[in-house]
Amino acid sequence: MQILLVRHGDAVEHGARTDSERWLTPKGRRTTRSVAEALRVAGVEPRRMFTSPLVRAVQTSEILASSACFEGPLEVLASLVPSGDPEHVVRVLDDVDDAALVALVGHEPSMSALAAHLLGVAFPPFKKSAVCAIRRSPSGRYGFEWMLVPKTLERVTSLEALDF
Prior knowledge:
The protein is an alpha/beta fold. It is built from four helices and seven strands. The chain has helices at 26-41, 55-67, 86-94, 110-119, and strands spanning 2-7, 48-51, 74-76, 101-106, 131-136, 142-149, 154-156. Strands 3-2-4-1-5-6-7 form a seven-stranded mixed sheet, with helices on both faces.
């Protein structure tokens, strides 16, 4: 199984609404569309998508889904919120077909905490709209594949090269 960990795009400031109601800014939408297009061009098209219930993550998921011609459903997973439990996410992934390409859209610090949990190493914080690809082998081992840097749309293929 290939797992894409995706941080939501740039959102309005905290004072605009409650945290759960914050929406993507125009910059956040543009950057997320660029990332989604880069994934589509590379043939990276999720067949299952899970999203945090917070507005900015749902909007990010919808942009990714549209670019990938994903017909849904977008599955809401409460453990993808900023304080989410990585173990709960792993239990959900355990019920997903090993051949699937799955996208998980959430927030910091839960995305880097989930990456660290899966890989068993410290993981730097995700930039907004960043995507990390992790592969789960049939034996249940997780391995880092690449990280898509939103600013340059380049793939970093080495954990040691991740410099955020």
